[in-house]
Amino acid sequence: MDLPLYAALGAAAPPPSHGEAPASSWEAAPPLPLDEPPRPAATPVEIGARLWGPFQRLYMEGKAGGHAYTIATGAFEACPLPDGEMRISTHLHVPGPEGVGVVELAMVRSASGELRDTEMAERPGTPLDPASREALAPGLSRSFGGFLRRQSLATGDAFSIGGGTGALACRVVGSSGYRGRPVLFVRCAGAQPIGVDGGWSGVVASDGHAAVDIETGVVLLSHLEGRIVSAAAPCQAAAAGEGAGPLFSVRSWFALEASPEG
Fold first, then answer.
1. Contact (Cβ atoms closer than 8 angstroms) between residue 11 and residue 192
2. Which stretches does UniProt call biased (Pro residues) (predicted)?
């Protein structure tokens, strides 16, 4: 999906490998609840041999400015198409000040694992509030993030999650598991210019970890934090939170079939 986790982030150079990163920076990145500590994946692993797996629902939890929200999808439906493609659909519950709106989501995943023909529409009778509609609108004009095309990856390899200005630059740290499913544990980073009424601008830098399902190339879970790292007017930036810890924190996870919510 075009998750808040990915959509708020811009392009950045791939993050350094574990050995190159300062210890303080590495340890500060949010952890993930993996089955075991990551181990090096020295031999390349093929990602995305299948287009879908036992993925039931997707949950997204965001925290910013002392507030928290949780967004959940409905059950996913996956329908095989000709030429080895797959149509994946669900609906998204989006809370707002006026109530909860519902958005219908659908996408076609090609045999190579890439996404195309994405669709997003408000469900009749359950409209979004204006702020939520504006936040979700970019998803109509660019590919959804959270899926990797079929490829081979090993420890230290760089790749991207998502596309366009919403892409995250990532690097493989190692392999592990999540609820019994083999995953690649990756470190990701992004940078997004921002502007705020009042005449100042800055850059929100985000980094964290994600776990990519090896069999399907789906990002099963992730946890990123973002901070203002530079601004044209430092005093206003400080008032907005620069240097005062995370500006926002977003994590997402799939609930798997025959398993409790994570």
1. no
2. 30-41
* Bridge partners (DSSP) listed for residue 255: 57
| pLDDT given at position 72 | 85
Q: Are strands 55-64 and 67-73 parallel, antiparallel or unpaired?
A: antiparallel
Greatest Cα-to-Cα distance within the chain, rounded to the nearest angstrom: 57
Domain count of the chain? Answer: 1
Q: Are 177 and 34 in contact (CB under 8 A)?
A: yes
Residue 28 structure tokens = 């500060």
DSSP letter, residue 125: T
Q: How far apart are CA 102 and CA 73, in angstroms?
A: 9
pLDDT digits (tens, 9 = 90+) for 39-83: 998 899 999 999 999 999 999 888 887 888 888 889 999 999 999
Average pLDDT value for the chain:
76
Q: Is residue 259 part of a domain?
A: no
Gap between the Cα atoms of 154 and 144, Å rounded? 24
For 192-243, the pLDDT digits (tens) are: 776 655 566 677 788 899 999 999 999 999 998 888 776 555 555 445 544 5
Whether 106 and 91 have beta carbons less than 8 Å apart is answered as no
Answer yes or no: is 260 within a domain. Answer: no
CA 77 vs. chain centroid, Å, equals 20
Q: Give the count of beta carbons closer than 10 Å to the beta carbon of residue 230.
A: 14
pTM listed for this prediction: 0.78
Task: Write down the pLDDT at residue 9.
Answer: 29
Does any domain span residue 215? yes
Structural domain harbouring 24: 4-254
